[in-house]
């Protein structure tokens, strides 16, 4: 188990196609809007548990959660958008314990976590002992080497997140709403949280199959000074003096070369008029530019249509601030919305 933070609106450095006639070209991005944290958990078989998404807010709002969100996803809030001691305990109680028990049954389970204070608390350790969950805490500052999520999963997910934010920017949407982001993260998890990436992370961390050498080989090695070699003077007999002895071409050789060049031009039937030469050289360039511009416009139009369809499908219901609980599942949120709508119906 580990957390991943998303800076909504920020993208990575990418190559873009621009108009070469402009003096300055800029990539328009939305910029950082807020920080959203997601708790993820994967197993050695390549499977994953439902996520817990933490927004920066006082209370969870029903308008943030689209109706097509998986029912076993969980949502919570914090003042900073980061995890806290309560989030770690709520996650293991509501997500890990019931979801992992569906897979393991009554067999003991092993949970690997880092030693961050928001993850490891006395209440969490006591809960693990009660539920027969073996807790393995990684050494500090080693998550990039020993945590399967950091080794093989979070890198691709960050890249896919940047690509999706770029897609919104190209469509002219500079403000990504939280309901849009929840749908966006569903697509990102489908691309990045794959069985292949998860198993690659476990293998890269040396945990499954167990291979300490896999990690030791990735440790930085101390830089050693290069071995000193004595400076020996060059032997004049080893130098190649053929270039120094060669002479530049004379007039006869230059005339022969010019004759060969002119005969090659005449054989290709090249246009002699300056206007014809300019047209022949410029026409392919202009055609390529127009084709590229047309392809870009078609791509932007398609992306804009997809985003519009996504927003049209969203159900606009009453915005309800969820209070009284710290963590809500999608199923609980939809049930609360349904009950609120029933109370508003005319009798």
Strand tally is 9
**C-alpha-based Rg, rounded:** 31 Å
Largest sheet: 5 strands, mixed
Structural class: alpha/beta
The low-pLDDT segments are none
The percent of residues in helical segments reads: 40-55%
> What order do the strands of the largest sheet run in, or round the barrel if closed?
1-2-3-5-9
Q: Any idea of the CATH class of the domain at 2-16 and 28-216 and 307-344?
A: Alpha Beta
Alpha carbon gap, first and last residue? 49 Å
| Mean pLDDT metric | 79
Q: What's the CATH topology label of the domain at 2-16 and 28-216 and 307-344?
A: Nucleotidyltransferase, domain 5
Helix-strand sequence: EEEEEHEHEHHHHHHHHEEH
Strand content: 5-15%
Helix run count: 11
Shape: flat
CATH architecture of the domain at 2-16 and 28-216 and 307-344: 2-Layer Sandwich
Coiled coil: 287-314
Domain DDE-1: 32-202
Pfam families: DDE_1
Protein name: DDE-1 domain-containing protein
């Amino acid at each position: 188990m580990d957390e991943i933070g998303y800076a909504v609106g920020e993208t990575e450095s990418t190559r873009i196609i621009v108009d070469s006639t402009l003096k300055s070209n800029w990539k328009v991005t939305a910029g950082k809007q807020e920080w959203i944290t997601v708790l993820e958990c994967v197993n050695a078989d390549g499977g994953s548990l439902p996520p817990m998404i933490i927004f920066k807010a006082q209370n969870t709002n029903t308008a943030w959660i689209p109706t097509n969100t998986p029912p076993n996803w969980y949502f919570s809030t914090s003042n900073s958008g980061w995890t806290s001691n309560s989030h770690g305990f709520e996650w293991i109680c509501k997500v890990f314990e019931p979801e992992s028990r569906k897979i393991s049954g009554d067999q003991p389970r092993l949970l690997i976590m880092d030693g961050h204070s928001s993850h490891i608390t006395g209440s969490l350790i006591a809960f693990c002992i009660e539920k027969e969950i073996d807790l393995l805490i990684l050494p500090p500052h080693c998550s990039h080497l020993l945590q399967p999520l950091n080794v093989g999963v979070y890198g691709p997910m960050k890249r896919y997140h940047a690509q999706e934010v770029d897609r919104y920017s190209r469509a002219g949407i500079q403000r990504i709403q939280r309901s849009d982001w929840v749908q966006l993260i569903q697509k990102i998890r489908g691309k990045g949280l794959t069985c292949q990436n998860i198993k690659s992370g476990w293998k890269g961390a040396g945990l499954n199959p167990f291979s300490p050498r896999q990690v030791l080989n990735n440790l930085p090695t101390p830089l050693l000074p290069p071995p000193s070699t004595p400076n020996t003077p060059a032997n004049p007999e080893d130098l190649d003096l053929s270039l120094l002895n060669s002479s530049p071409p004379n007039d006869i050789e230059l005339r022969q070369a010019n004759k060969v060049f002119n005969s090659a031009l005449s054989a290709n039937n090249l246009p002699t008029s300056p206007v014809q030469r300019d047209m022949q050289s410029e026409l392919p360039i202009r055609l390529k530019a127009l084709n590229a511009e047309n392809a870009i416009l078609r791509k932007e139009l398609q992306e804009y249509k997809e985003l519009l369809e996504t927003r049209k499908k969203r159900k606009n219901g009453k915005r309800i601030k969820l209070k009284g609980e710290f963590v809500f599942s999608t199923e609980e949120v939809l049930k609360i919305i349904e009950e609120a709508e029933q109370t508003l119906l005319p009798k």
